[in-house]
UniProtKB/TrEMBL annotation:
Protein name: Helix-turn-helix transcriptional regulator
Domain HTH cro/C1-type as annotated: residue spans: 5-59
UniProt-listed PANTHER family: DNA-BIDING PHAGE PROTEIN, TRACRIPTIONAL REGULATORY PROTEIN-RELATED-RELATED
Keyword annotations from UniProtKB, A to Z: DNA-binding
Pfam families: HTH_3
Organism in which the protein naturally occurs: Streptosporangium longisporum
Domain of life: Bacteria
Length: 64
């Protein structure tokens, strides 16, 4: 599953550590999500989409 977490994060000028702190997860978790090695739980996916002011479907795309 592809996602736009890296693009959304860098547009805001955030490091992986900054986003991890905001989400209450490790920097490694953010890195793994961005590289597609880890699929976040539904609560984390919702938290990420709310943080970026968008929908889960716009952040995570199963068709890409």
């Amino acid at each position: 599953m592809r996602n736009t977490v890296r693009e959304l994060r860098t547009r805001r000028g955030l490091s992986q550590g900054d986003l991890a702190t905001a989400m209450g997860v490790s920097r490694q978790t953010i890195n793994s999500i961005e590289t597609g090695r880890y699929l976040p739980s539904l609560p984390l996916a919702i938290a990420l989409s709310r943080f970026f002011g968008t929908t889960v479907e716009e952040v995570f795309d199963v068709d890409r």
